[in-house]
Amino acid sequence: MRTYLTASDIEKALGEYYDGSKQGWNLMFIGVKELVETGKISYKG
Predict the structure, then answer these.
(1) What is the pLDDT of residues 1-42, one digit of tens each?
(2) Into how many domains does the chain fold?
(3) What is the torsion angle, in degrees rounded to the nearest 10, for the CA atoms of residue 17, residue 20, residue 26 and residue 28?
(4) 8, 18, 29, 44: which has the fewest Cβ within 10 Å?
(5) pTM > 0.85: yes or no
(6) Which domain of life does the UniProt lineage start with (predicted)?
């Protein structure tokens, strides 16, 4: 049995990837900002 992706499936996956990437970059830059300002990072992952 073969499963085919629809345009809707691809659009949904791209949106989820974009949202996840955006969140990851935001967390990274928040951490860098905190490190520069305080010398410490409170988030330990």
Answers:
(1) 888 999 999 999 999 999 999 999 998 999 999 999 999 988
(2) 1
(3) -100
(4) 44
(5) no
(6) Bacteria
